[in-house]
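Lab notebook, bench 4. We co-purified these components, and the gel suggests they stay together. Before we commit to crystallization screens, I want a quick structural picture of the whole thing.
Request: model the full complex, all chains together.
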Amino acid sequence: DQQVKQNSPSLSVQEGRISILNCDYTNSMFDYFLWYKKYPAEGPTFLISISSIKDKNEDGRFTVFLNKSAKHLSLHIVPSQPGDSAVYFCAATVASNTGKLIFGQGTTLQVKP
Amino acid sequence: EPEVTQTPSHQVTQMGQEVILRCVPISNHLYFYWYRQILGQKVEFLVSFYNNEISEKSEIFDDQFSVERPDGSNFTLKIRSTKLEDSAMYFCASSPPLLDRGWNQPQHFGDGTRLSIL
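Here is the predicted assembly.
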């Protein structure tokens, strides 16, 4: 089941620069997308979400962009901080359904001081 | 900030034994979920629960699995006869009542229970 894919297993950026994490999906029924951050030995922590009626949502240093025609979303973190180092998961769901989240494989972000 | 709590943090069980994983969702949440993550793999949906019944379950959630909300606060996942391949991190999640129409509310996750089957 590869409905949600994060093709980059890891990303390394310098502190202060922009981090861009990417996610692709195949199911055109998905209409609500979320990004979660996960530290070792903790559960996923909700970061930011976007509904398919929008193409951008911003919350502080975090911005999510949605390109429905390309079935692609991205998370921008600017400026990146060492505390942002974690595994980032993209997830998608059909909002009118049971709320089941389909997750990508995750991207490990390392922000170097 | 309210959070989802899961106990125990680590459970070691002999193959074939029953195990119960416990979760206390956030108090005003109405929708409850279990997910699991086998080491090195994706987080996978197991089951969703609303209004005291299962609303959806995955192929993984076979007859060996059951969920229950025995009182107003706990949400449990039971595995009747554990197998080696049940070894994984199990995450409980909950989400608030709907906003207007649809499910535009994020799920909040607990820190998980690491289940090790010997």
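The first strand of chain B starts at residue 5 and ends at 7. Worth comparing against the SEC data before the next meeting. The mean pLDDT of chain B is 91.
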